[in-house]
Amino acid sequence: MRLVRQAVLAAVVASVTLLLFGIVSRDGGAPSASPPRLLAAGPRMVSNHADYPLMIYGENLRPGLRLMVGDRSLPTTLVDEGHLTALLPAGTAIPAEQSIAELELRLEGAEGSASLTVVNDAAFPTPLDLEVAAGRIFVASRTTDEIVSIEASGELLRIPTGDGPRSLALYRDPDDAEWLVVACELGGELRLLRTDDPTGPQRSIPVASNLQSVIVSGQRAFVSEHRGESVRQVDLERGALVARIESPVDPGPLALLGDHLLVGNASTEDLTLARLRDGTTKRVAPCSGVPIVGGHTEAFAGWVMGGKRVRGIAASDRLGVFFVSSPGPNIGPNPERMEVTMSGGIGVVDLDGAFLRHVALLQGMPQGLALDDDRGILYVADVSTGRVEIWSAAALAAGDDEARGAFLAAIEIPASEDTPRLRPAVDFGVEGRASESLHSGPTALRLSGDGKTLWVLARFSGAVQAVEVATPSAPRLGRRFELDGFTRQPARRLGEIAYYTDLGNSRMSCDTCHPDGGTGGVLFTKGQPMRIYRSPTMRGVRDSAPYFTPTMLPTLKHTARDVLGRNRFYNPRPNRNEIAALAHYTETIVPLPNPWVGEGGALPRALELPGGGVGDALAGLAIFGRSGCGGCHPAPQFTTDQDEASRGRLHASGTPLALPLRQEMQDMHLDPGWPPVSLIGVWDTFPLLSSGAGGLEVVDGSIVPLQELPLRQVLRSPLADGPVHGAAARLSPSERDDLIAYLLTL
Questions:
Q1: Is the pTM of this model over 0.85?
Q2: Cα–Cα distance list, 11 to 4, 6, 640, 679, 723 (Å)
Q3: ∠ CA(562), CA(686), CA(314), 5° rounding?
Q4: Which of 160, 227, 251, 637 has the greatest number of beta carbons closer than 10 A?
Q5: Which of 56-65, 84-93, 160-169, 666-675 has the lowest mean pLDDT?
Q6: What is the pLDDT of residues 421-471, one digit of tens each?
Q7: What distance in Å separates the CA atoms of residue 731 and residue 488, rounded to the nearest whole number?
Q8: Nearest by Cα to 418 from 503, 489, 511, 510
Q9: Quick one: which of 384, 380, 360, 364 has its CA closest to 372?
Q10: How many C-beta atoms surround the C-beta of residue 95 within 10 A?
Q11: DSSP string spanning 293-351?
């Protein structure tokens, strides 16, 4: 029976593949006289807060067809008889209280239809950063494309700005005018607003796609960007790019100390230390034996295999070190089979690139940092339990023994009254659990000029809270400003809280393994078989059930129940409300708009590839089809798990089961098979393969990133020598470049 089922599934997949990829252009043949027909569109889920490229799949397609999205009519571009491209503009209208809308897609004058899910991010504020200047507090809200200026009177000014504002800095020009510098992630630009006249004209400086963080020194801005995996240096006076520093993969937070720039790389979970005067760089990461001070992983320092994603960086001129916040060193295979490797805290890095120590917080998971260098005080936002911890920077930097006594105080940031609660109030602050303050979500911090007030941005409750820190060891809550728009979509907001927080004080949350919904490197975990696994992306996860391998959980609700319970060690068991909210929030995590496509979503004919080479994405589409890639990765989500008829297939891919680190401590004898992962957003995924072998290798007991593009590595020998990717291994170098170009556009 099993063989029969497999044969039936294979036939279904083959028919879908032929349907969607067997209709590639007919090499100049006459167009079919049959009427055009729409079959599918991908990705199946997008956001309404940004422009999203779409690929339309069908039969007998021709130029001039218009795509109807609800009552909107959009132009399309013909790729071939089986494919059209279109661009869905931002702003799809959805009632503010509604988090998801299902829209019907049709082609004018064509048969057939498809469904498109649009997530209502435009009505779901996501504040990520703040600045304080000119008597105002500025807050960047990524999803609503605006800066909120909080006036001294408490009035809120909503200032439209570029697409996806996510990081803020201050700049003083040669005329002594002060500007707010806004890094706009999806707009690929810096926006500059006068702090004394924020509603006045804005300057725009184009930089690159997918900006992450910005800092300013003098008239120069340093901006990290994801598409090109680099830090761009921008002359703010001239509005010109002046230098570029490579820092793979997915560079994020930045800090400058003299001539040294430290960059936190999200996907490789390490740091890059760059010396600006000569452009040299050095990889920085904790390794086996790095001192871990405090926390439950202290005894496992000898089994460290790398780092975890850095969330914030602060530089101390006085002490000559950087402080970095992260979930802690990544503990690999160990004799006790301990798999809870998260121990949020502060790492200390010197100017030579040495990772000196990691000091665990009392509880929770750190996010943003603020440093009072004059007084030697480090403030740490704990997004997972709703607190701010206060530490002696001098003690953290001095040595392991001194760091053990560096903690000074902590203060809880209250949630707003109308913020939804996970559970009844009596369930918090008992049996070792976090308090009700976890509903606030401190994410970013800024000090006032005199260092006496710390401003805290509370992501979940939509508030900016003042903490009076004239006496750092005795902090007091001060003035509070409430942002608006945070009562909409309450179930989704509750799910966001469940995703990012740590009720059980276990040092784990969904975000520690899947930061901001993205990939989280590799972990030694999973129970049985217990090995080093890649921590996959949640972006678009709704369309790739079942979940986990080999557990095969059938729905996101089942997954939320199991993962949330395990994350908190069942202290307490998640209730139905939490499970439903977390599942709902997870299904709204959309893939990022693809930055590799051409205008209108077109497939580029000469795409410059990372690491060198040029590929023809249109030719790559044809190679994808004739190489049989669609057998496991059929459109539109490029996984057989996208549809009920072909869901749940596991196969022996021939790729490594796990990275070869202390294999005697891993379950290398068990191979239940791998699911065919979705290729949507593969450009934004690192590492590749379930083992992480696509992009990572073991060097001297540590897991380190390879220098080449992971897609190129996966498509050639030895990783492509198995039964699944063998056709790719037989491609010529130019064909492989074309295929890579196409995959980057998915």
A1: yes
A2: 11, 9, 12, 21, 18
A3: 90
A4: 251
A5: 666-675
A6: 999 999 999 999 999 999 999 999 999 999 999 999 999 999 999 999 999
A7: 51
A8: 489
A9: 380
A10: 10
A11: ESSTTGGGGGGEEE-----EEEEETTTTEEEEEES--EE-S-TT--------EEEEEET
Report yes or no: 583 and 555 within 8 Å, Cβ to Cβ.
yes
CB of 732 closer than 8 Å to CB of 726? no
- Backbone angles phi and psi of 131, in degrees to 5: -140, 160
Q: Is the per-residue pLDDT at 551 higher than 80?
A: no
Give the number of C-alpha atoms closer than 13 A to the C-alpha of residue 94, restricted to the C-beta side. Answer: 25
- Identify which of 587, 588, 613, 634 has the alpha carbon closest to the alpha carbon of residue 746: 634
**DSSP annotation string for 47-81:** ESSS-EEEEEEEES--TT-EEEETTEEEE-EEEET
Q: 682 in helix, strand or coil?
A: helix
Give the separation between CA 473 and CA 483, rounded to whole angstroms: 29
Distances (CA, A) of 255 to 9, 655, 724, 741: 52, 38, 43, 33
Per residue in 69-111, pLDDT (tens digit) is 988 999 999 999 999 999 999 999 999 999 999 999 999 999 9
CA 203, 464, 451, 347 torsion-angle sign: negative
Helical spans, DSSP H, in 399-514:
400-404, 490-500, 510-513
User: Going by C-beta distance under 8 Å and a sequence separation of 6 or more, which residues neighbour residue 304?
Assistant: 286, 287, 288, 289, 290, 292, 329, 330, 331, 332, 702
- Max Cα distance, the chain (Å): 80
Q: 377-403, pLDDT tens digit by residue? A: 999 999 999 999 999 999 999 999 999
pLDDT tens for 696-720 read 999 999 999 998 899 999 999 998 8
Question: What angle, rounded to 10 degrees, do the helices at 490-500 and 576-587 form?
Answer: 90
Q: Which of 283, 299, 390 has the alpha carbon at shortest distance from 346?
A: 390
Q: Cα 52 from chain centroid? A: 17
To the nearest 10 degrees (0 to 180), the angle between helices 617-626 and 2-21 is 150
d(CA 499, CA 505): 14
Which of 648, 674, 688, 629 shows the shortest CA–CA distance to 544?
648
Which of 302, 237, 226, 208 minimizes the C-alpha distance to 268?
226
Which residues are bridge partners to 245 per DSSP? 231
Q: What average pLDDT score do residues 493-517 get?
A: 96
Secondary structure (3-state) at 533: strand
The arrangement of strands across the sheet holding 220-225 comes to 211-217, 220-225, 230-235, 240-246
Sign of CA dihedral 590, 596, 598, 602: negative
How would you label 580-598 residue by residue, b for 16+ Cβ within 10 Å and e otherwise?
Answer: bbbbbbbbbbbbbbbbbbe
592 vs 518: CA distance, rounded Å: 10
Name the CA dihedral angle for 563, 567, 572, 574, rounded to a multiple of 10 degrees: -20
Amino acid letter, 38: L
Query: What are the percentages of helix, strand and coil residues in the chain, rounded to 5?
Result: 20, 35, 45
Specify the higher pLDDT residue, 186 or 728.
Answer: 186
**Please, what is the Cα angle at 385 between 382 and 386, to 5 degrees?**
70
CA proximity to 313, closest of 190, 182, 189, 213? 213
* Residue 110 tokens, joined: 């064509």
- Exposure on the CB side of residue 648, measured as CA atoms within 13 A: 11
SS (HEC) of 712-730: HHHCCCCCCCCCCCHHHHC
Query: What does the pLDDT read at residue 32?
Result: 54
SS3 178: strand
